[in-house]
Amino acid sequence: MAEFIIGAPLKGPARRYPWLRRLLWRIDFVFVWLLLKGFRLLPVDLASRLGARVGGWIGPRLASKHRLVRDNLAIAFPTLGAGSLEHLARACWRQGGRILAEYPHLDRFSREAARLDIDTTGADPVDLQPCVIACAHLSSWEVVGSALTRLGIANATLYSPPTNPYLDRMLLRSRAVLNCELVPRDNSARALLKALRGGRSVGVVVDRRVDDGEDIDFFGHPKASSMLPAKLALKQGCALVPARVRRLKDARYAVSFHAPITPRDPAADEREQARDMMQQLHDHFAEWIREEPADWLCTKRLWPRGTGSSPLEANAGQD
Fold it and tell me: Which of 100, 152, 167, 284 is most buried (most C-beta within 10 Å)?
């Protein structure tokens, strides 16, 4: 969340002087804590609407991040003009603000039936216990955990710890209400495999770039992507289930668990089966994003510099 608010991890002098780094971490923590505490005091629908306004105001002012959002959208939607791209990027920031404002209310999504419309017609409930559940940064992906809690399915979710340890501890406490084990992204394969073997389903968000991953076609361009979800499913013999979240109105969502992805060529070796499964998964993501592009939070560089023909890409800032 710190990177969402300030636009980038701490750099420069803050890296060289530990006391300055700790001070900035504390300032960052206090700012985010007060913001979330304020949102928690509001009715969740009002918080969501206010969050949209906050995100729509802050996001475009984070110059390098806003440029990355426009660059990603320009590659995904090459026919859009500059004005349309700017309008869409601002809509994405409003969506990000909603997610932030709703975060202190995560427990309500698992308690209040009216907040979540859960559709499991695509995936047999047996497939969900345990399985690997994969989604994109579409709408509020966090509520997939709330949906699993409602379904009585224990789960472990892969996450990227904030560089700020104070925010990391706050994140861990807030997710405790979901009966969800959080697994740090680095060196996570063993922990996730242990969770699956222990009867927990595993949740991953996998539309971001992973530098040491393999190229998967995404919107017509290769994106370095993790093979971990497919490899876990193949190794453990469980289902790889795509999950989609759609916002209905304010803080109300539809969560759909789709039919499990299986390799199209069972005779292929494990690496090719994993690549095929991840390609099918990204094809789902691209289809959903095209349907609701304003719900896609794409604040990290997804493709190599120079991808596509957008002039914005050539001048892109930092990740």
Answer: 100
| Whole-angstrom distance, CA of residue 248 vs CA of residue 117 | 9
How far is the C-alpha of 253 from the C-alpha of 114, rounded, in Å? 9
| DSSP-assigned letters across all residues of 151-179 | TT--EEEEE---SSHHHHHHHHHHHGGGT
**79 Cβ contact partners less than 8 Å away, ≥ 6 residues apart:** none
CA max distance for the chain: 57
Instruction: Please return the burial class of 210, using the count of CB atoms within 10 Å of its CB with bins 0-12, 13-18 and 19+.
Output: middle
From 204, 191, 198, select the one nearest 157 (Cα to Cα). Answer: 204
**pLDDT, tens digit, 9 for 90 and up, residues 258-303:** 999 999 999 999 999 999 999 999 999 999 999 999 999 999 999 9
Instruction: Look up tokens 């093979």; give the residue.
Output: 227
For residue 153, which amino acid is it? Answer: I
CA distance linking residue 204 with residue 228, whole number of Å? 9
- Whether residue 9 has a cis bond before it, omega within 30° of 0: no
Place of tokens 């047999």: 124
The secondary element (H helix, E strand) that includes residue 39 is helix 18-41
The model's pTM: 0.88
Over residues 172-219, the pLDDT tens digits come to: 877 776 667 888 888 789 999 999 999 999 999 999 999 999 999 999
Contacts of 140 (CB under 8 A, 6+ apart): 98, 99, 102, 245, 247, 253
Give the residues across from 256 on adjacent strands. 119, 244
CA distance 63 to 95: 18
- Which residues, 6+ apart, have CB-to-CB distance to 128 below 8 Å? 120, 148, 151, 153, 201, 239, 241, 257
